[in-house]
Design brief:
heterodimer, A: 248 residues, Rossmann fold, six-stranded mixed β-sheet, globular, B: 9 helices
Chain lengths: 248, 261
């Protein structure tokens, strides 16, 4: 279980998180929604330790994430970045097997390659993609490779940062279905940040809405349409009028 | 506040900013070096950096040394003719190249080629979240990106300087024999007779320091890169400028250390 308690983060005068409280239950898929620039990515990066919060605590299974063995902590996570964040200088299979080629989880080269090709197959890519470089792939294929990399070491927790941004609706649907299938299949805890409502409905067990630096609403996805929360209603229906200012 | 006070405050702000940058670079350097003693060490990345920085810089360093050696021979001959000292051409070319021009020009050429490429590569990795991705994959970016490059440059640039010295002396030899009517045997004899081991070794040590500076500046400004194309462009420019200035400044300090009476 991941728990954020009263987490604050500011960048200079810009206060991004102003007391975020959120619980993500083990084995569940939590989707955080909210407008652009509301701090969704910052919250996610705070959990991973990529950004240090100014105050508040973040725990994983009761353990403060800023303490203890960092390698062991990170080994529990997989992450799909918004732009894929594939390493340009490495072929696709080495991107996917990156964790398996070095460090504590190092495997022999042929075995790592075999696992990479199997993970590529799992996300619908053929083995001939393995030896290509990321720049030779389309945006949708890069997302799939990023997804394959995120699941390659079979992590307990997977983060998805805007998994469908920049994709056409069909490819977005394919990625959403893949995420749902994979999360269910490996029983991982998932945290996704997005403002794509089709993603929310396809991926989420629970939804949290972040606005003005705090969680405005959280609950099961089934209750999202009847929440009665004016912020959530405006956001999920994409209305220009309401408590959320259209121009921020 | 008077104009004079504003002027002083401006200078003070500039000095504080510069000192803060020096502090950050010193911390970055010590952090990089501390990884030498902490496994894992990424041998493959080190060897790749060695090829990129050392082997692929050889043509540009070699050409620079060749033309510099030739030009130096012409200049010394023309200058020496004023007081009938044309015979010093081989020895001054050799000493000038090995002590000063070889390491400094070699270092500056490597700074232009390598610091820019490292800063642009790491800066692009930063803005495309590849550095964050490395961290989430349990890989320390300092260990994976910075240490192999800094170590490779520190080892490769002295070798480049050594090869550049030889090529530069050959440039002087070609001009001396072909244009200035020196006998080939006399030119080589004078070069070898007057050249001391310390002339070469001091230049090679300078090369190691310059290599360290070049890669460190490339990595530092790459890691500090701002967002977008403009941020990467600024990081690249800053890396080359900082590396070049530090090479010239450290060259003076090393020359004082090595050769002051």
């Amino acid at each position: 279980m991941i728990e954020l308690t009263d987490v604050h983060k500011a960048f200079g005068p810009n206060r991004v998180l102003i007391g975020v409280n959120l619980t993500i239950a083990s084995g569940r898929s939590m989707v955080i929604i909210g407008g652009s620039g509301t701090g969704k990515s910052v919250a996610l990066k705070c959990i991973l330790g990529l950004i240090r919060p100014d105050s508040g605590t973040i725990t994983l299974d009761g353990q403060d994430v800023t303490k203890g063995d960092r390698d062991a902590f990170l080994a529990r996570f997989g992450m799909l970045f918004q732009g894929g964040a594939l390493f340009d200088s490495l072929p696709v299979w080495q991107n996917v097997a990156f964790r398996l080629l070095r460090g504590s989880r190092k495997r022999p080269l042929p075995e790592a390659r075999e696992i990479a090709i199997e993970k590529l197959r799992r996300v619908g890519l053929k083995p001939d993609v393995a030896d290509k470089f990321p720049a030779e792939l389309s945006g949708g294929m890069q997302k799939r490779v990023g997804l394959a990399r995120a699941i390659a070491a079979e992590p307990e927790i997977i983060f998805f940062d805007e998994p469908t941004t920049g994709l056409d609706p069909i490819m977005a649907g394919v990625i959403n279905d893949l995420i749902r299938e994979i999360v269910t299949e490996i029983g991982a805890t998932a945290m996704t940040i997005t403002h794509d409502m089709s993603s929310v409905r396809a991926i989420a067990d629970n939804v949290a809405m972040l606005h003005d630096g705090v969680i405005k609403w959280t609950g099961p996805v089934a209750e999202m349409d009847h929440s009665g929360d004016p912020y959530l209603d405006q956001f999920i229906h994409g209305r220009a009028t309401g408590p959320i200012e259209a121009v921020r | 506040m008077t104009f004079f006070q504003s002027f002083l405050a401006g200078i003070g702000r500039y000095v504080l900013t510069a000192l803060a940058a020096v502090g950050r670079i010193a911390l970055f350097a010590s952090n990089t070096l501390s990884h030498l003693a902490r496994p894992p060490f990424y041998t493959r990345e080190f060897l790749q950096a060695l090829i990129q920085i050392g082997w692929l810089s050889l043509p540009v360093v070699g050409m620079t040394a060749l033309f510099t050696g030739g030009a130096l021979a012409l200049q010394i001959y023309a200058g020496g003719a004023r007081f009938n000292a044309e015979t010093v051409v081989p020895s001054i070319v050799a000493i000038g190249l090995t002590r000063e021009l070889g390491p400094v020009l070699g270092g500056l050429m490597v700074a232009a080629r390598v610091a820019s490429s490292i800063a642009a590569e790491i800066g692009t990795m930063k803005v495309t979240e590849q550095i964050d991705a490395l961290t989430t994959l349990s890989t320390d970016p300092m260990k994976y990106l910075t240490l192999p490059r800094v170590l490779a440059a520190t080892l490769a640039v002295p070798l480049l300087v050594g090869v550049g010295d030889a090529i530069g002396i050959m440039g002087g030899f070609l001009v001396g024999v072909g244009r200035l009517d020196f006998g080939a045997a006399t030119y080589l004899h004078n070069t070898i007779d007057f050249l001391e081991t310390w002339d070469v070794v001091s230049g090679v040590i300078k090369g190691a320091v310059f290599g360290f500076i070049v890669a460190l500046m490339g990595c530092y400004y790459g890691m500090e890169s701002g967002r977008g194309a403009q941020g990467v462009g600024r990081a690249t420019k800053s890396a080359v400028v900082a590396a070049s200035v530090l090479i010239l400044a450290s060259n003076y300090i090393l020359t004082e250390l090595f050769f002051s009476a």
